[in-house]
């Protein structure tokens, strides 16, 4: 619990000219009720003094990983645990590169590695440095890893050039960070069950029917729901992904195993999000022995797999039920007919007819529908998109359960 209405934010200041805006950022965060501790990189003190940031934050500023007196007061691991968010502003090109590499050679980069809190970064640099493929590559890797990128802005730069690379104004950064932190409590204490990945339906010991789902969308949703305070269980078909922190991970192979895993846990869930691409069919017969080339007939007889989503939605005491729809055409009509046929609370439809969206991609866009409305969530990395979808689900869940 916090001793004040806001959250606990570590503001990291790295060495760029935009560091002159950091005191204003700290002041605005405190005005919004947050408690702030400042950590500077050694380079940052060329642009602004620790004393200035101490005055506006109301606490001594940390600069050194190996400062015995500061470590005695609040060790760096303790500081990493204290933080509800680590916000690096400004984040220079050099800092972003180090963050991407997972360096831990100063206090700020070490904190970013040691914390379980979300990390946000407000880049600030010359426009050529921002546009350089190395920086762009670092930024997209960091975004995929869940780092919240705030900006940069476009306009006049300290170096005299005009273009992208200016740090966002402190008031905007403070607002965006506050919004993100408020999302943390959205699903506080609720049980959320997420299905993800493909299922595999075996034909014999070496062959199976499956699909191209990577699990990314479902894993990102599990991570976002956990970030929003939920107790998350992720029931996943075979993927190469690592389960997010603070999420119970249940591995399954077939649609039937996924059904059993979901049905035995659904009692504890307030919300089900079915992002798995469950195979609709399985071979009607399983051969214990590898089917020989000559032994195979011309056709494989198939049968339907259990429809997990429909079964959950049909329960008399059911969770708030969110389905996905993988569509190639007539998105709204098809998604709405699934919404109605399965009596879902919400459905998120995505296109699966091209590269860069739906199955296997890093990014996605969603059209979300409910009985009397709908909205479009724009194309972006699945982790960022998942945060938006979870916020939308929480809003609808709360409207349906006002207590
Ligand atoms: O895993 P990624 O590579 O990140 O890709 C993400 C995704 C494209 C798989 C995901 O965004 C998605 O669309 N998942 C649902 C895919 C799908 O199977 O859609 P569908 O329209 O066939 O099924 C409709 C809904 O019923 C889905 O919520 C599905 O989980 C559920 N279903 C389907 C069949 C079945 N037997 N049981 C089910 O529960």
List keywords for this structure.
binds ligand PMT, five-stranded parallel beta sheet, 2 domains, 19 strands, 14 helices, alpha/beta, 403 residues, single chain
Shape: elongated
Looking at the overall shape, the CATH architecture of the largest domain is 3-Layer(aba) Sandwich
CATH topology group of the largest domain: Rossmann fold
Strand arrangement, major sheet: 12-11-8-13-16-17-18-19
Bin the strand percentage. 15-25%
State the low-pLDDT regions, or none: none
Bound molecules: ligand PMT
Specify the number of helices.
14
| CATH 4th-level superfamily of the largest domain | CoaB-like
- Average pLDDT taken over every residue: 93
Map the helices and strands:
Layout: E1 8-13, H1 22-31, E2 35-40, H2 50-57, H3 68-73, H4 76-82, E3 85-91, H5 93-101, H6 107-114, E4 119-123, H7 127-131, H8 133-144, E5 148-149, E6 153-156, E7 162-166, H9 170-183, E8 191-196, E9 201-204, E10 207-209, H10 216-227, E11 231-236, E12 247-251, H11 255-265, E13 271-274, E14 281-283, E15 302-304, H12 308-313, E16 320-327, H13 331-341, E17 346-351, E18 363-370, E19 373-381, H14 382-400
Parallel strand pairs: 1-2, 1-3, 3-4, 4-5, 8-11, 8-13, 11-12, 13-16, 16-17
Antiparallel strand pairs: 6-7, 9-10, 14-15, 17-18, 18-19
Helix pairs in contact: 1-2, 1-9, 4-6, 5-8, 10-14
The protein binds ligand PMT.
């Amino acid at each position: 619990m916090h001793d004040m209405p806001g959250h606990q934010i570590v503001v990291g200041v790295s060495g760029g000219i935009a560091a002159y805006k950091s005191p204003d950022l700290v002041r605005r965060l405190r005005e919004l009720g947050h408690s702030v501790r400042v950590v500077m990189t050694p380079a940052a003190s060329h642009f602004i003094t620790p004393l200035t940031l101490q005055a506006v934050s109301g606490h001594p500023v940390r600069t050194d990983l190996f400062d015995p007196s500061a470590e005695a007061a609040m060790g760096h691991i303790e500081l990493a645990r204290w933080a509800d968010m680590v916000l690096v502003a400004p984040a220079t090109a050099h800092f972003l590169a180090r963050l991407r590499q997972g360096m831990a050679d100063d206090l700020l980069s070490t904190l970013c590695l040691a914390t379980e809190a979300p990390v946000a970064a407000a880049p600030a640099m010359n426009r050529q440095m921002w546009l350089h493929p190395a920086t762009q590559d670092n930024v997209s890797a960091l975004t995929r890893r869940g780092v919240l990128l705030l900006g940069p802005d476009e306009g006049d730069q300290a170096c005299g050039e005009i273009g992208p690379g200016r740090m966002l104004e402190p008031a905007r950064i403070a607002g965006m960070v506050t919004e993100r932190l408020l999302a943390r409590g959205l699903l506080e204490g609720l049980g959320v069950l997420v299905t993800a990945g493909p299922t595999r339906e075996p034909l014999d010991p070496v062959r199976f029917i499956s699909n191209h789902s990577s699990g990314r969308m479902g894993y990102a949703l599990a991570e976002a729901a956990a970030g929003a305070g939920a107790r998350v269980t992720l029931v996943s078909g075979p993927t190469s992904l690592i389960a997010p922190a603070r999420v119970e991970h249940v591995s399954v192979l077939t649609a039937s195993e996924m059904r059993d895993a979901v049905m035995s846990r659904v009692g504890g869930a307030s919300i089900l999000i079915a992002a798995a691409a469950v195979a609709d069919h399985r071979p009607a017969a399983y051969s214990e022995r590898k089917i020989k080339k000559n032994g195979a007939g011309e056709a494989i007889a198939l049968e339907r797999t259990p429809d997990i989503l429909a079964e959950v939605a049909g329960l008399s005491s059911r969770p708030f039920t969110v389905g996905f729809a993988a569509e190639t055409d007539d998105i709204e009509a098809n998604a709405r007919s699934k919404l109605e046929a399965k009596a879902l609370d919400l459905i998120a439809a995505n296109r699966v007819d091209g590269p860069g969206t739906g199955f296997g991609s890093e990014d996605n866009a969603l059209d979300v529908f409910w009985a009397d409305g709908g909205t479009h969530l724009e194309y972006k990395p699945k982790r960022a998109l998942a945060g938006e979808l979870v916020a939308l689900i929480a809003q609808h869940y709360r409207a349906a359960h006002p207590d």
